[in-house]
Amino acid sequence: MQQNKSVIKAKTKTGVVVSDAMDKTVAVRIERRVLEPNFKKYISRRKKFLAHDEKNECEIGDVVEIQETRPLSRRKSWKVIAIVKKGFGKEIALKE
Fold it and tell me: Which residues contact 77 (CB under 8 A, 6 or more apart)?
């Protein structure tokens, strides 16, 4: 008899680092566009996630890819898996 093992793929998101003040932790802002039902227009929704950065290599303004993981602390359940684009400016990241 053959067993079917289902592999659960972890969720990934791409966002901009908005804070790197903590040790081995970065705050990543994820922006998504949703259709507003009454006016039929797209609006931006933002959410901030805390992600684990093991090597402390992320800086403000970097575009990073984060992956869901087991809870590492009360608010931290994501880890940085790749830096997609190195910092495009501290002022731009904080202004948006």
Answer: 68, 69, 70, 71
